[in-house]
Each structure stands twice: as structure tokens, then as C-alpha cells.
Amino acid sequence: MSERNDTRARPNLRVTGRGTLLGAMFLMATSAIGPGFITQTTEFTAQLGAAFAFAILVSILIDIAVQLNIWRVVGVAGERAQDLANKVLPGAGYLLAALIVFGGLVFNIGNIGGTALGLDALLGVDVRIGGAVSAAIAIGIFLVRRAGVAIDRIIVVLGVAMIVLTCYVAVVSDPPVGEAMRQAVLPEALDADIFFATVTIIGGTVGGYITYAGAHRLIDGGTSGPENVRTISRISVTGILITGVMRVLLFLAVLGVVTGGAAVLDSPNPPAAAFQSAAGDVGMRLFGVILWTAAISSVIGASYTSVSFVTSFSGWLERRRGWLVAGFITVSALVYVLLREPPATLLIFAGALNGLILPVGLGIMLWVAAFRGRDLLGGYRYPRWLLAIGVLAWLLTIVIGYQALSGISELWQ
Questions:
Q1: Rounded CA gap, 55 and 61, in Å?
Q2: CB count, 10 Å around CB of 389?
């Protein structure tokens, strides 16, 4: 029976292969570009000005090093990260899955909140109704008959829409591009604020479930094994670059507003204030579209990836993946609707948790690359240069993990 099902699946994968690659690339990118991404970029830009360009450049380079290694190990092995972790150290995969699912659930509550705020800015819809409607839309996407194809196409459309709309606002705000380019290479000061901004946006781009989103989608789409190394590497880097482009555009949009004298941080919603200052009421509506798009795509990414960390443990779970994702989104939406206040503390905790997950997951993948290539990677000879930059990036993630522990301890004081 299983062989017959596999035979049926292969033609579909060949037909939709290109869509699957694009979907995996944008799934990772749009998973990173959520409400937290938009808020962090806005606030750091308002605080640091053009010097934030340096933090963005450094973070992109480190993100590439992290993602290249994780995607290559997972892709060449053709197994999800939790399964590889269990083979390295029995039980490690269950721990990694638990961390990913919990962090993804908490972040998803914030993502649902982001969709609600987006619809409020766009149409004036009550935030609880907006959150419930957006959750229903996300569930509908997963329950359609060909969910994989639908996800790939919708994620690409949402990703392109975000970039185009943000680009428009970046042009309208007329930022000092030359100054930003200069400080990206030669910042006026390298202080603790820039370091904090750098480690924060690294954790927000490749921390937690985010970096595994596209890698697991590639495996599910049939793109794995040593013969697909070049494709896996190209897609992984491109996903980071898409995220970087979006951050740069958002940075420039806010920088133009801040340079013009607008007090963005005085507003209860800094990103909305920045867009409104740049383009008036049209800017506010555009912000609503961008925020809703970013949030709904993050709901899809967080839900898909979190569930992918548990379905491989059981065939029964794998066969019911669509319903598990629907349940995951439903629980996130119910918690959001029942909370009387925005889940700020939960989001801070989830951000700190992502900082802890990053060195754990990356460390396991690097161990596989260095010592288990013969059995887990099918004899693939892992490039030493890639392993070296992976280890350097991992050392930095230890620092990010320390920052995360500090954040968690402050929450419990």
C-alpha cells in the first residue's frame, strides 16, 4: 500500500517542484517577517538611526552561515531535524520538538494578534473579530485538498506583496540612503545598543522554528539528498536575502520618517505611526495590508513548522497533519481571544526561548556534519569551510542564548 502511495506522489512532486522550491524559500522568509519583525525593525531604527544598517548587514551574514549549515544537513540527510537529533542522542529530538512547538505556539498567539491589528488599521475591524476571521482563513488554507500546493502559492504571493508595498513607502519617505550605506560599513559607534540589536534580529530571523520552516518544506516536497545540495544551498541563501531585503526596505522607510523629525517611538504603535507619517491615511492603510500579510504568513509558517516537528514520530499523526495544524491555529486564536490584554509577556518569553533553541538545534546539526556524515548523511563529505563558519556562528548563538536566559530570568523576578 505504501509503495503505491509513493508512486502516486512522485509525479506530483515533479510537476510542482519549482513551486515547492519557491514555497520553501518564501515560507522561511515570511515566517521571519511577522509582527515582531516589523516592530523590532521600527524601534531599532528609531533608536539607532542610520547606524542600524551595520547591525542589519552583520546579522544577514551570520544568518546565512546558520541557515546554510542547518538546511544542508537536514536536506542532505532527507530527515527532519528532530529525527536527526534523536539519532545523535536518544531523546534529544523530543526535547527539540517540545521547545519548537511551545515557542511556535506562543509566537502564534502574537501572530494572530498581528492579523487583528492589521485588519483594524485597514478596515477598522474589532481586534477580536479580526483575529478570529484571520485564524479561520489560515485554517481554510491548510484544509484544502492540495494544501501543499496552496501553501506554496499563497506564501509566494504574500511575500511579494509585502516587499512591493514596503518598497513604495520606503521611496515616499525619502530616506538618506547614502548615509545608511556608509554606516553599514563604517558605523559611527559600536556600542552595546548595536550589539543588542544585532543579536536580537538574528534570533528573530533564524531562531526557534523559523530556520527549519523551509528546510522541512523541501523534504516534504521531495527535494533532498546529496544530489540536491546546490539547490538546497541556493534556496537557503535566497530565503535569507529575501528577509534581508524586507528588513532593509522597512529600515529605509522608517529612517526617512525619523530623519524628517517624526517622533515614532512616542506612538503606542510605532510602525503604524511611521507609515502614516510617510504617506498619510494611505500609508496607514498600506501598513494594515503589510501587517496583516506579514502576520498571516507567519501564522502559516509557525503552524506548519511546529506540527512538522511532531508528525514524524507517528504515522497516525502524519496522516492527520492538516487537522493538527488546524487545531494548532485554533488553540492560538482561542488564547488570543480570551486574553484581556495583548500577550506581551508571552511574546517576550517566546523570543527568549527562541534564543535558547538556536544554539541547541544548530549544535546538533553541526555535530551530524562533523562526526556522523558516513551514516546520517549517506557518506556525504561535508565542506570543512562551511563547518568552520557554522562553528563560528554557533559560538555567537551561545551569546544569544545567554541574552535569552537573562531575559527569562527578568520575567520571573
A1: 10
A2: 17
CA distance 271 to 295: 14
pLDDT digits (tens, 9 = 90+) for 97-154: 998 998 888 889 888 988 888 898 888 888 889 999 999 999 988 777 555 566 667 7
Cα(88)–Cα(382) distance, integer angstroms: 17
Residues 235, 157, 253, 111, CA torsion sign:
negative
Q: How confident is the model at residue 388, as a pLDDT?
A: 96
Nearest CA among 205, 287, 195, 198 for reference residue 250: 287
Closest CA to 122 of 289, 234, 274: 289
- Long-range pairs for 384-392 at CB < 8 Å and ≥24 separation? 386/68, 386/69, 386/72, 387/69, 389/65, 389/68, 389/69, 390/65, 390/66, 390/68, 390/69, 390/362, 390/365, 390/366, 391/366, 392/65
Task: Please tell me the number of Cα atoms within 13 Å of 209 on its side-chain side.
Answer: 32
Q: How many residues does the chain have?
A: 413
Q: How many CB atoms lie within 10 A of CB 53?
A: 24
Q: Decide if pLDDT at 245 tops 60.
A: yes
Give percent of the chain above pLDDT 70: 87
What does pTM read for this prediction? 0.85
Q: For residue 179, how many other CB atoms are within 10 A of its CB?
A: 16
Check: CB of residue 224 under 8 Å from CB of residue 75. yes
- Here the cell at position 305 is 513548522
Q: Which uninterrupted H or E stretch holds 313?
A: none
C-alpha cell read off for 413: 523576578
Identity of residue 148: G
Exposure letters 120-137 (e unless 16+ CB within 10 A, then b): bbbeebebeebbbbbbeb
- One-letter amino acid of 41: T
Q: Which residue has the cell 487545531?
A: 327
Q: Where are the domains of the chain?
A: 20-107+177-264+300-411
pLDDT value of position 136: 93
